[in-house]
Write a structure and sequence with these properties.
By secondary structure, this protein is mainly α. Helix content is 71%, strand content 0%. The chain is built from nine helices and no strands. It has helices at residues 4-7, 16-40, 49-61, 65-83, 86-107, 126-144, 152-162, 168-186, 191-202. The radius of gyration is 19 Å and the shape is globular.
Length: 203
Amino acid sequence: MHNGASAMKPRQPITLRKVLTYAVILLLACGNALSYHIFVFPNRFAPSGLNGLCTIIQELFGLKVGYLSLIINIPLALLVFEFVNRKLAFRSMVYVVTFSAMLVVLERIDLSAFAYSTENGTSTILAPIAAGVLNGMMFASVVKTGGSMGGMDIVAACIRKVKPHLNMNTVIFTLNSCVALVSYFVYDFNVEPVILCIIYCYL
C-alpha cells in the first residue's frame, strides 16, 4: 500500500522557462493597461469583451475599470481553477491582477504627454486601430504562454467545458455586439463610439 505522502506528486522546480513565461505575462498586462490609458480612455469608446462593459460602467458611474475587471474575473478564474484547468486559471489571474493594478496605478500618473488626444483635429479612428492591433498582438502572446487575458477568454473556457460543441465565435460576437450597441446610448447618443468599438473588435 502507498501512503498519502508517497502518492503525492513531487513539487516541480522553478525553471528559467517558467520565470520567463511569467515575466512575459506581467509585461503584456502592463502594456495593455498603458494602451487603455493612451488610446481608449482619452477617446471615450468601449473596447471589446467584458472590459468593454467595465469601460461603459466607468463612463456611467465613475467606477474604475481596474477594480471592476478584478471583481468580475476573480470568480471566473475560480471556476476555471476548479473545473477546467488550474494552470490556465493561475496564469490568467496573474495577468488580470497585474492589468488591474497597473490601470489603477496609471490613474495617478500624468500621461497627457503620451496619450493620443483628438482635440487637435487628428483622426479619432487611429485610437482604436492602434489599441486593437496592440491588443491582438498581446492576446496572441498571452495565449502562447498558456494563459489568457481574462474576461471572455475565461468565459469561453468555462463554456467549452460544459458545451464543447458550442461555437464560441458566436458567443463572443454577441457580447461584442451588445457592447457596441450600448455604446451609442452611453456616449451621448453618438454613432462614432459604436464605429470605434467595431473597429477595435475587428482588429
